[in-house]
Design brief:
It is a single chain. With about 250 residues, this protein is mainly α. The protein has one domain. α2 packs antiparallel against α9.
Length: about 250
């Protein structure tokens, strides 16, 4: 093709047909420019296609992380349901312990649930990865970028989870020493210790233990409320991302 155009130029020059040569040269320049523009457009199309593929993949991974988050929240809600039952049983045993000290044993059986908690922290693997590589702009919708960023910067659960963690540890620190009795020590160590017998336990009238249980109950309720709100946010964001992916 290049030889063809060169022969045309040489023939026009040889025939002293300068005006036609000039028109031809301009036309050739225009063709070259058009060719460059077409090549650039094709390159832009290819880049857009590559970016769309990356965006589609990224949003898909975000959905997977959100589904993992939903599972973690459900685990927290199930644990809190059992904790509510344990707290209610603790109140029940404490209210009857004055006349039946043996209920201290049933109270102690609740400690594994009362002194532990399940906390929710979102899976940030995909989001942190794309932030660290500076590719967040690959999400074309600025509104969707904002919604995803808002989700991962949401701190509404942090406060109540930290308070619940502190309360749980405080309850453990206060209750455990007051629960130690001869029967419990014998059961766990097979040895006799000079501590109070089971029937002399006074946890049922200990205001500190009762107060910690009340705080635990309220903070667990608040935790459930925040978890439920977060679950709704996840569902909404997941639906929006799915709609976005389906537009490709």
């Amino acid at each position: 093709m290049i030889k063809f155009f060169r022969k045309i130029r040489q023939r026009l020059l040889a025939e002293n047909r300068f005006s036609k040569y000039l028109l031809y040269a301009i036309g050739e320049i225009i063709l070259v420019v058009i060719g460059i523009l077409i090549a650039l457009q094709i390159n832009d199309w290819n880049q857009d296609r590559i970016n769309a593929t990356k965006e589609h993949q990224f949003l898909g991974e975000i959905i997977i992380n959100l589904e993992e988050d939903m599972g973690l929240i459900d685990m927290c809600l199930v644990y809190n349901k059992n904790k509510f039952k344990a707290i209610d049983s603790a109140f029940h045993f404490m209210s009857l312990m004055k006349n039946n000290k043996s209920l201290g044993k049933q109270f102690s059986s609740l400690l594994p649930v009362l002194t532990n908690s399940e906390f929710f922290y979102p899976s940030r693997v995909t989001f942190d990865g794309i932030i660290s590589t500076g590719q967040i702009e690959i999400i074309r919708s600025s509104e969707l970028r904002k919604q995803i960023s808002n989700y991962y910067s949401d701190k509404s659960l942090d406060g109540v989870q930290e308070q619940l963690k502190i309360n749980t540890q405080s309850f453990l620190d206060i209750t455990t020493p007051k629960m130690i009795n001869q029967e419990m020590a014998k059961f766990f160590t097979k040895r006799d210790f000079d501590v109070i017998p089971l029937e002399r336990l006074t946890i049922h009238k200990d205001p500190d233990i009762l107060a910690k249980l009340f705080v635990m109950l309220n903070k667990t309720k608040e935790h459930n409320q925040r978890l439920t709100e977060m679950r709704t946010k996840i569902t909404t964001l997941k639906d929006i991302i799915t709609q976005q992916r389906n537009t490709y």
